[in-house]
Amino acid sequence: MGFVIMKYKRIVLKLSGEALAGDTGFGISAKMLAHFSSEIKSVVDAGIQIAIVIGGGNIHRGIAGMASGLDRTTSDHMGMLGTVINALALQDILNKDGMSTRVMTAIEMRSLAETYIRRRAMRHLEKGRVVIFAAGTGNPFFTTDTTAALRANEIDAEVLLKATKVDGVYDKDPLKHSDAKKFSKLSYIDVLSKGLAVMDSTAISLCMDNSLDIIVFNVFQAGNVLRVVKGETIGTLVTK
To answer: Residue 135 falls within a domain, yes or no?
Structure first.
């Protein structure tokens, strides 16, 4: 019965590095790892194929590194390595919670993880493994949001889930403005023209060109990932 009610069969979940840090703002929180593992397990147990793209902002942010005098390319490469650290931590907790996983990196590091190959990634998903994509696209000047859009399109995911700390997209920061207005649905063009902080413009354009829906939702509320997969109306849908 559980398989029938699911709206999506294959999803990509975009997690930020900052989310892994929890309240500390830096590093990796054991509490947050446990929370995300529980959320992911609920989806896996429902028979859904899930791939995860993880950021590295809790360890190093490419653009922020430039303020320290680092070259942008060097700083972005450092950020990519930060995503690998996060991916390995997430893989470890998922394994301990009984899930089968694979970390696939855009930069070859064979002693730690598999190098990303599209068909191999899809085979892992078909076998019920959780695939964690790390090291971004392997190129500087591209964010992990763009990586999520790219990988979701490559592996034929049906939807891209953008995990955030608020329950959707607002016209201004709801944590700072009490009169912020939430959007239940937006077009890609709306996001780009209004300059809404959903994902960067490259990621949005990539989804728009390939008609890949994005759902922005609060990942910190327990059960939300499964609710989205079931097709419940939460967060903000970005579509054509």
So the answer is: yes
Q: Nearest-CA neighbor of 45 among 167, 220, 225, 214? A: 225
Burial class (CB in 10 A: 0-12, 13-18, 19+), 127: exposed
Label residue 173 by pLDDT band (50, 70, 90).
confident
Asked if residue 1 belongs to a domain, the reply is no
pTM: 0.93
The pLDDT of 206-231, averaged and rounded, is 95
Amino acid, res. 41: K
Q: What CATH number is given to the structural domain containing 171?
A: 3.40.1160.10
CB 119 within 8 A of CB 153: no
| Distance separating alpha carbons of residues 188 and 239, to the nearest angstrom | 6
Which contiguous run of DSSP H or E holds residue 133?
strand 130-134
Structural domains counted in the chain? 1
Which whole number is the average pLDDT over 10-23?
94
